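Structure in, sequence out. Go:
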């Protein structure tokens, strides 16, 4: 490789060699003569070192030399850079391997599964959670709920068991275990374990019949009443929490699906924003109601910045179209009119805007009667301009067949890329042009009548003079009447001439 690089240099570089002493002059002269004969080196004795210069080599027959892949790649890049001149442009942000980084994805306010991506921090008034302890326990996750459920019963059993043991210890029942003449507060309580078991039997109303309270202990009677009442309250509270948590309609929303994308296309010659919603269960949502919100930050005229401002998107509130009969999948439509936040948004602006559309479906579960809410959202890049949802309902023998395989499918349709405002202005100009063209034609009708009158006067004058009359073009109404009169053999009187 060293020989190949020296004989066939790929790039003209400078090579500095150490200055040799005069004692070695013969070897230096020999090397210099060899280099000069090859036409590669020019020696400068004054500088004291050898400088390489690119000289025209003598023509020699081409020799096949094996070059490395890196040298071939460098040569190709050099030739390409000589012929192709790159235009300077804005440099894109490059990643680790030199690839252009994708556009940063917007942070969702509401996830596709309906979970709100909001976390509350720095809350100092945490005591408010204890004022509504029932809702707090219901909102806990299942792990914490089961832990609280077990600890509630265990703590009450241990607490009252300790009290029963304390009563037996204070009365001296533990010192008279073998004395048959002694009447204890609770029979067969000889330690803490037996007192704990008696507490469980009392609170759960099991009643095995081995440990029984006697009538010689009024304190035990009062404690028994207290434990029975508190035990019923604990049962009602904890069982109620678990029942409400189990019967929560949150999982019912898992079978209420929204389309992956929203579309914008023409419907009845008007731009509409549309998305699809469906129910996978046979049990229906009673009183289903649809709402939509636009989440977008804005700045007021006074300079106030409002992050994540919420703007209502009408989906048929005025006409009642927001109340759904959700038996089969429905396409929810929002007409982009002057009151819509998308009134001035075109296809090019849609690709640049940073917003989020949150859709909310509310209704009552038919099986349980509880209110259910399903949510989803669409970012700007998830709104497809010029698309329409594919039909998914087929008429089968005796029923309607719904093909959920085409639930998220869309197809392209012809849609203008301008905004709804521009589309409405173009339609208004077209209507105004038609209006003025019709009115101008109506204004020309008196002029035609006057021309017909002049033509009839001229024809009557020519007929009196005995000159022949020739009519070119279409006949007027008066000429048609006169022609019909002649065909019928009628005679024109002076009065008819005057009217003509």
């Amino acid at each position: 490789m060293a020989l190949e690089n020296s004989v066939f240099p790929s790039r003209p570089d400078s090579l500095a060699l150490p200055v040799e002493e005069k004692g070695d002059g013969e070897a230096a002269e020999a090397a210099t003569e060899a280099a000069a004969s090859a036409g590669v080196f020019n020696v400068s004795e004054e500088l004291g070192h050898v400088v390489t210069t690119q000289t025209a080599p003598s023509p020699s027959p081409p020799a096949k030399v094996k070059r490395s892949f890196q040298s071939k790649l460098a040569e190709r890049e050099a030739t390409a850079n000589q012929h192709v001149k790159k235009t300077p442009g804005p440099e894109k942000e490059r990643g680790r391997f030199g690839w252009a980084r994708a556009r940063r994805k917007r942070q969702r306010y509401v996830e596709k599964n309906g979970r709100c991506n909001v976390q509350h921090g720095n809350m100092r008034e945490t005591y408010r959670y204890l004022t509504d302890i029932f809702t707090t326990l219901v909102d806990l996750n299942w792990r914490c709920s089961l832990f609280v459920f077990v600890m509630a019963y265990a703590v009450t059993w241990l607490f009252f068991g300790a009290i029963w043991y304390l009563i037996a210890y204070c009365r001296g029942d533990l010192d008279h275990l073998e004395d048959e003449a002694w009447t204890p507060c609770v029979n067969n309580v000889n330690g803490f374990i037996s007192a704990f078991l008696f507490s469980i039997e009392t609170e759960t109303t099991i009643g095995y019949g081995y440990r029984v309270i006697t009538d010689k202990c009024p304190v035990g009677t009062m404690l028994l009443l207290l434990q029975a009442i508190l035990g019923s309250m604990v049962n009602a509270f904890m069982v109620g929490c678990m029942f409400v948590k189990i019967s929560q309609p949150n999982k019912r929303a898992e079978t209420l699906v929204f389309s992956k994308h929203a579309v914008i296309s023409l419907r009845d010659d008007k731009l509409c924003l549309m998305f699809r919603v469906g129910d996978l269960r046979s049990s229906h949502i009673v009183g289903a109601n649809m709402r939509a919100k636009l989440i977008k930050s804005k700045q007021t005229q006074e300079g106030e910045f409002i992050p994540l401002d919420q703007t209502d998107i009408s989906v048929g509130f005025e006409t009642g179209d927001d109340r759904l009969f959700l038996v089969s999948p429905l396409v929810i439509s929002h007409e982009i009119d002057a009151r819509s936040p998308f009134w001035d948004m075109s296809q090019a602006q849609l690709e640049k805007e940073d917003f989020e559309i949150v859709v909310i479906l509310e209704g009552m579960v038919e099986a349980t009667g509880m209110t259910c809410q399903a949510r989803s959202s669409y970012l700007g890049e998830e709104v497809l301009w010029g698309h329409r949802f594919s039909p998914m309902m087929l008429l089968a023998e005796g029923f309607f067949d719904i093909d959920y395989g085409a639930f998220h499918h869309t197809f392209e349709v012809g849609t203008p890329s301008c905004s709804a405002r521009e589309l409405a202005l173009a339609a208004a100009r077209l209507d105004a042009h038609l209006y003025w063209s019709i009115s101008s034609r109506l204004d020309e009708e008196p002029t035609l009548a006057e021309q017909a009158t002049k033509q009839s006067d001229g024809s009557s004058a020519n007929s009196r003079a005995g000159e022949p009359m020739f009519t070119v073009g279409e006949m007027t109404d008066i000429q048609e009447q006169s022609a019909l009169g002649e065909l019928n053999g009628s005679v024109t009187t002076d009065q008819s001439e005057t009217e003509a």
